[in-house]
User: What shape does this take?
Amino acid sequence: MARPLAGVRIAIVGGGIIGLAAARASVHAGADVTLFERDRVGQGATLAASGLVTLGLRGRSSLRQLKRAGYRAMERWIPELKGRLPEVAGERRSAIRLFETVPPTRDKLLAAWLEAGHDARFLDPAEAAAPIPGLDPASFSIALHLDQEIVVDPPALIQALRDDFVSGGGVLHEEVGPLSIVPSRANDVAIIDSGGRSVAEDADRILVASGWQSVAALGSLPDPSLAVAPTGGIGLDLHAEPAEWTVHFGDKGRTHWLKRGVDHVYLGSTVRGEGSTEPTDDAERSALLAVARAHFPSLDESAVFRVRDGLRPKAQRRGGPFLGAYPGRPRLWIATGHYRLGVATAAATAEQLVRAWSGGEPTDPGFAVLRGLE
Ligand SMILES: Cc1cc2nc3c(=O)[nH]c(=O)nc-3n(C[C@H](O)[C@H](O)[C@H](O)COP(=O)(O)OP(=O)(O)OC[C@H]3O[C@@H](n4cnc5c(N)ncnc54)[C@H](O)[C@@H]3O)c2cc1C
Assistant: This one.
């Protein structure tokens, strides 16, 4: 196996899906990797994620490209990880998107999905609702069937990545409290742990993967227009019988149906205002349940058995999440998940970092997605 990072020492601050994916990919590429997590790995935004990994639409924006690359990379990663942790669910799923009214650009839309690589087709309400118990066919006008959706269970995926990383020789420090990156000399940085000690001094690369707390971790460095805002949101898991389908409701009425071989669920998710770290309120939860009930009239509050609640890193700049080298500090890099796509983009983000660290890519002082995605 090629080991393009053989002998390279990497320190990673933050063990969410992005930090762990980067850690695992770097170890596989031969690097000596140490990961520092303030609490336990996967307890940040990643714990709240629904785990949808979608191919998305065609499009040339850096985010769309990263999302597509993320889907393809996850297709490769899942079989690799399955041997380690069989519970990682990740087969390709069917998805059905419901539309309240027939989109005026229906043909163009279908062409766009087909061009993106989906086996896409429109279904009338009776055809779409037939295999899905409880779905009211009168609640939508048309449905789009897609075949390119992957569902992973984020805690299981985190566990698999963690185990793979550690068994590959990676060093993991959990519950170390918040680390800070501080300037040192003209163009360097140091990592300071919560006891005030400098750690990983000999690292060749330092990756900040601290999710929405990335700005705080970089607190005393000059800010080169780095803006990562927490963006709250909830998801609901609902019992529905017989439960052969996972349903993902968007808060703006977009709806996915995802076939899944587990004994529940419906999922939904909302997005709260940027910058807010307020806890979930009942109104938010009720609004989400109302979206579900519009399609499944028999659902009530008692169907809710899990509320996923988390702060996503909203890290948008020039169409992409933050992924790149920190200007003027050659050892320092940053990678965050993006909003609703951190799980979806994690595998590609990690592969991009390995490629860049292997000398293949130019760095990007603007912190947008690295160039050169296929
Ligand atoms: C309800 C909901 C549903 C979602 N559904 C999906 C979905 O279906 N698909 C999808 O792709 N995405 C989804 N997301 C988004 C996804 O959860 C995030 O984009 C992703 O988890 C972000 O990963 P991350 O590694 O950047 O951040 P995090 O998971 O937050 O990880 C950052 C880690 O860094 C640690 N840390 C922070 N500061 C420090 C420090 N100073 N020192 C050391 N450690 C530190 C934290 O403790 C944390 O463990 C969803 C989010 C929510 C809230």
User: Anything to note?
Assistant: The first strand starts at residue 9 and ends at 13. The chain has two domains: 9-84+154-228+316-357, 92-149+230-312. The chain has nine helices and 18 strands.
